[in-house]
Amino acid sequence: MKILVVDDDPNILELVSIHLSQAGYDVMKAGNGMEALKLLDKDLPDLAIVDVMMPGMDGFELTRRLRDEAAIPVLLLTAKGELEDKEKGFLAGSDDYVVKPFEPKELLFRINAILRRYDKAVDVHIRVGPLKINRQSYEVSIGKKILLLPLKEFELLSVLASKPNHVFERDYLIERVWGFDYEGDEQTLNVHIKRLRDKLEGLPEGIRISTVRGVGYKLEVAS
């Protein structure tokens, strides 16, 4: 998953990019609207995070261009909370907005909500080594073996497999699989990870879920 971040403040640009990278996203960075549009000639992101107050082309105009020219969902960053700015953002075609200063966790929640709305959270077909996941048929296969997984285990494995050998934070996994309004505790995640490990254990293809203490989990695939 690629996210384009556009902000003329290099500190905000770097801060947002770090949090997105830690959450498992590939990040494209631009310091202004024209630079962002040039990046689209090389690659197409799944979502754009756009600052409203930028010199030259402001965030509202860039949002209109992104929506009209590439149909990319847009999350606006604004330093203001006035109704007029919110209205202008939605009229320009933005999908949501976050008011600065914001908590990184809130930004991730809103990104994931938009991606779910557009059904872009995870690719339909995922292949990692011998592991194949079909998110349309909910079928998981490793070599010739078919794994029958409950829905939450399937979703959890899909997220981990979407970026193999990448460490996903525990909070991020909980939000992606159970939703940002989930009120349970981390034990639920632990139980589902254990069940997935039990089902992957003993398979000769060298696929396993490893724990990164204090951070989260990653899906490791032997080369």
- Percent of residues in β-strands: 15-25%
Helix content: 40-55%
Q: Give the total of beta strands.
A: 12
Mean pLDDT value: 86
Point out poorly predicted stretches. none
The CATH superfamily of the largest domain is known as Response regulator
CATH class of the largest domain: Alpha Beta
Summed up, the domain count is 2
**CATH fold topology of the largest domain:** Rossmann fold
CATH architecture of the largest domain: 3-Layer(aba) Sandwich
Number of helices: 8
Structure class: alpha/beta
Morphology call: elongated
Largest sheet: 5 strands, parallel
The sequence of SSEs as H and E is: EHEHEHEHEHEEEEHEHHEE
Radius of gyration: 19 Å
**What gap, in angstroms, lies between the N and C termini?**
23 Å
Give the strand order of the largest sheet, numbering strands 1, 2, ... along the chain.
2-1-3-4-5
Task: Briefly characterize the structure.
By secondary structure, the chain is of the alpha/beta class. Helices cover 41% and strands 24% of the residues. The chain has helices at residues 10-22, 33-39, 59-70, 83-92, 104-117, 151-162, 170-178, 187-200, and strands at residues 2-6, 26-30, 47-51, 74-78, 96-99, 125-128, 131-134, 139-142, 145-147, 168-169, 207-212, 216-221.
